[in-house]
Write a structure and sequence with these properties.
The structure holds 2 protein chains of 2 kinds.
Chain A (H helix, E strand, L loop, with lengths): L4 H28 L6 H22 L7 H29 L8 H22 L10 H13 L7 E4 L2 E7 L2 E3 L1 H25 L1 E5 L2 E4 L5 H17 L2 H19 L2 H21 L1 H11 L10 H13 L22 H34 L3 H25 L17 H22 L1 H4 L3 H5 L10
Antiparallel strand pairs in A: 1-2, 2-3, 4-5
Chain B lengths: L1 H28 L1 H5 L5 H7 L7 E3 L2 E8 L7 E4 L3 H8 L2 E2 L3 E2 L1 H5 L1 H5 L6 H10 L7 E4 L3 H11 L4 E6 L6 E7 L4 H5 L3 H13 L8 H4 L9 H10 L7 E3 L3 E3 L6 E3 L11 E3 H6 L3 H11 L1 H11 L22 H8 L9 H12 L3 E3 L4 E5 L5 E4 L4 E4 L3 H17 L13 E7 L7 E9 L6 E10 L4 H19 L2
Parallel strand pairs in B: 1-6
Antiparallel strand pairs in B: 1-2, 2-3, 4-5, 6-14, 7-8, 7-19, 9-12, 10-11, 13-16, 14-15, 17-18, 18-19
Amino acid sequence: MKGHPRRTELWLLTVAWAIGGVSYATVDLATLDSLPVNFLTVLVGTAAVLLVGHIVIRRLAPHADPVLYPVAAMINLIGLVMIHRLDVAAQLRAEANDARPPSADAIAQATWVLVALGLFTLVLFFVSDHRKLQKYTFTSLVAGVVLLLLPLLPILGTSINGARLWIRLGPLSFQPSELAKIALTIFFAGYLVRKREALATVRRKVLGLGIPRGRDFGPLVVAWLVALGVLAFERDLGTALMFFGVFVILLYVSTQRRSWLIIGAALFALAATLGYFAFGHVRLRVQIWIDPWAYANDEGYQLVQALFGLASGGLFGTGLGEGYPQFIPFAKTDFISAALGEELGLAGMMALIVLFAILVERGLRTGLACRDPFGTLLAVGLSSVFALQVFVTVGGVTRLIPLTGLTTPFLSYGGSALVCNWMMVALLLRISDRNRRPSMIAQSADEAMTQMIRVGIDR
Amino acid sequence: MIRAIRRLGWVFGFLAVLLIVNLTFQQFLLAPSINAQPGNQRTVLAEYERERGPILVGTKPVARSVATPKQTYKFLRTYPDGVLYAPATGFYSSLYGSTGLERQENDILAGTDSRLFVDRIEQLIAGRVPEGGAVQTTLLAAAQKAAAAGLGSQIGSVTAIDPKTGEILALVQSPSFDPNGLATHDAAAAQDYYEQLDADPDKPLLNRPLVQTIPPGSTFKLVTAAAALDAGYTPDSVLPGPAAYPLPGSSRSLANWSGAPCGPNDKTTFANALAISCNSAFAYLGNELGADALRTQAEKFGFDNSFDVPMTAATSRFPKDPDDAQTAMSAIGQFDVRATSLQMAMVTAAIANKGVTMSPYLVNQVLAPDLTVLSSTQPKAFERAMTEQNAATLMDMMVQVVNSGTGSNARIPGVSVGGKTGTAETGAGRPNIAWFVAAAPAEDPQVAVAVAVENAGQPEVSGNAVAAPIARSVIQAVLQR
């Protein structure tokens, strides 16, 4: 991608904006036989918001990767369109039953986009250099653990659909585990930068596998116990899986020791077995995964509806507004990718997965290009959060793996997740900007514009 | 760290491929079986996405789909004159599936039939929602209405056939049901209605003319008469006709409905025996001819055979191994003889059609959405049941039944109507079934009709009193077309 990165970004943003606008119009034409009443307003408003983000990046991270922001914006727009599409279905249903029309979740989500844009700007503004974050390694740990524990507090914490994940502040409910994702990723990166030499030390070989010293197991076991705790007390399989997964990944990346992966996998298997026998809700999820049809009318209803939707979508989908994604309970949150699969088909799902793959790949590339190990680990950690979350949610609703309760990044309805995902993109942009700043590379300005990655030096 | 990150990239890439491979299974390879899972309402809804083709009587739709904008179901199946045509159309319900032509001709109506392939391609290119083709029935609106008006609130069925082709001109039952009540998208209302129909002791959901087999009574004497003619009897043959026929090998006897002998000196001619429906003479004939001859004759008219019209009609039966007493009773359409009103219409039609039984059918043409003809049903002979001469002889005898015998109520001025009355006993203490079968005009038959009215009171007279007027009005309706 030659040329000025910000010009590339603007061009990609225009494409995302156009696709979003056409999709929005398609939904209303298919369901209401008319263009959206507020079509122009929405087009202009969306363009304005996208442009503000773009200008913020121009000002605060001018050399950052040009693909990250448009790709995240594209996924965000697809999510908004699908939430609006489900709003329309609910509205038509209310009309048919002479009931009061439900409030439009798409508008609430769009409001959260504005909040997200604000925090995105604040992160880029205050974190002028990602290396500053390394100083807050242990502050992040404390913050992360406190955030994870908040929902367990008696007054603040709220259970929604069986998972104790929310805190309620007046009219707002917030999912602190989303913020904990960022805090703990910062902690993992900072901690591993300091400890990686020790953790990489191999004491003895067993079956050709380097086994670390006993006391180096400590952090891994702690992370494992925390994940188990989340699983046990908050009944949140997805978050537990993700934290543990990201920690193991960063442990592997920082030490290059495959033994950590194998030990991590073993601990995961142990936890999974424990969870299966100890917790009824875990067992149920696995049973539904093995045979959803047996639970088609009760606990497996949601997954069965998702599978019906995916199958009816087929290769090219029913078309936006032409399917029945509203039959899937919680289609706007956990099951939004199934709703998209129904209306956009296998082709649309491939495109969506490719978009996420680009996001993750750009994140990993940012980590590769980073010259300080903390930045590398942070970028890889954030990318892995996205990757694991997408795999676990999309895999869950399409019956590749048992279902866990997680939201799909940028797509799902829900403010806390959206805000935190955009903060993560801001951090990736910050690291990327640092990598590509011409003065740092100190080579010809021309070359600095292109995407240079120094390879072959193992830090 | 670089090598590890690159490996991680490969792992994430592998996970993305896993997602896509799994989606390919769910959305493509396994999709047909998932779509066919019971309880998948999307598959039901998908049938309502396209405009289902109409079922036509002449050019008038008796079942058609109406667009319902902004509703979950995009089309509603409606049935103008639903109660009248229900025995033919059946119903099409999202809750209870479909019956009748809606079920048998579903491929055409839904537009999935291979004959509509070219149309589907055209529609795909034009970007239009695919439409179903139309099914034109053989029914004649006037005949259908005359039959329904004649039956009124009595329980029974009427089947009329074009003797020369086998086209079903009328298919009527009472009580019937309103398919609109089951096709409605108001699930609660549909369920209420279905449960009400299902609980009704008079079984409105039962397709009486096609599926209900009942004793044909004296109308079966036509089959016995055909066998007798084949065996060499003539209308003038003299037969014993006592007031009661002693059943062979039994102490019981079979009485005439009048309780009197059928002629002077307990004798009667064959022609007179048919005209006054003489039980003793026909019981005697039955024993003379034997069960095998009767069965062979019955089977040539279509008994012991199944017909797809396209709905599969119930098989009418002649008993397997009757003893002599049972044979005598079978010869007058009692004992275990069972027939649908379709079958009795076919017997009458075959006699009128110079002895050839035609296969009955209900679908005249199958049309594409643009109303071009995809296929027309060709009349098909089932079997020759009688020689042409015997058939003409029997037809003459039937005309006597109407003109000077028991079938006086079927007389139409200026038209030679041949008919036969019947009253079937359905068991001790149970009401009789009044029958009348007829064909007209005798010299150039246009219609053969069978009427069965259940719960009709008196023996023998009821066939003429209750059923014959209905047959007459159906014949008039057909002749006036």
